[in-house]
Design brief:
4-stranded parallel sheet, globular, 7 helices, about 10% strand, about 55% helix, alpha/beta, Rossmann fold
């Protein structure tokens, strides 16, 4: 199964202090099997906040190996629908989180994340979490 890797996993795996972590190893495995995927908003989140230009360039060059999945207008509409439906149930989330859900749903992918909001999302949305 293809896997849409959330920003939090990329961040955990890219930090030097946790290079031996299970998330780093899992991401490495997904990459070696060509099953790890990105979308533009996740790429932007990963690259945002890097204060040293050389680190930014190095990371940007590394991430070039991962083409972005195409986002369609229907994905944004689906994300808004997911957001509206869950808000009525008292569940909040970010616009990007719901976009991740919409894209994972359309592509039939699992989402690899440690974001606890997704624990609530999977109870009500047609998405799977990679574990």
């Amino acid at each position: 199964m293809r896997v849409l890797v959330d920003t939090c996993i990329w961040s955990l795996a890219l930090r030097r202090i946790v290079l031996g972590s299970s998330h780093s190893n899992t991401l490495r495995e997904l990459i070696s099997e060509n099953r790890a995927y990105l979308i533009g908003p996740i790429r932007q989140e990963i690259l945002s906040g890097i204060s040293h230009k050389q680190q930014f360039i190095k990371l940007r060059n590394t991430l070039e190996a991962f083409p972005d999945l195409m986002i369609q207008t229907s994905d944004y509409e689906c994300a808004a629908e997911f957001s509206n439906d869950l808000r009525q149930k008292g569940i909040q989330g970010s616009a990007i989180d719901f976009l991740i859900c919409a894209i994972a749903h359309r592509y039939g992918m699992a989402v690899y994340t440690v974001d606890k909001d997704f624990d609530y999302f999977i109870q009500h949305l047609p998405i799977k979490i990679y574990s």
